[in-house]
Amino acid sequence: MTPSLDSFPRVDTLSARYGDRDADNLLSESALGRYIEQARSHAIIEILRECDIDLFDLRSEIGMLLAHTSVDILRHQAPANRIQLATGIARIGNSSVHLRVGVFCDGECLAVANNVLVFVARASGRPILLPESLRQRLHAARCA
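Below the sequence we write its predicted structure tokens.
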């Protein structure tokens, strides 16, 4: 089932660049990968900052790793002037979060990515239970 833009709680817009096109003048797979990475990092960093968690601070007790990502390319087309990057939380586990990303052009979904992020204790590298403040914020960012 192809997701709709309104099933995601967060939507960011960016401008397509000439270099995002492939030899057939369509949006390249590498551009889609960059868009997905940008959407994923912006969404999770914003959620963490709202919980006063800074993954860039090496003194932080919490770390995070990308355990798995999968991308389904649903259609190929020339990029529109504006690309919409939609994100939302699909599932919340004890120490993991499944973040879904949709890439849209002119309201049409071009690709969907499912990402599994695992939170770990920085000292041991072992999975930890999600802090309650983070769990609450993740629930607020769930996909419809």
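The helical segments are 29-50, 132-140.
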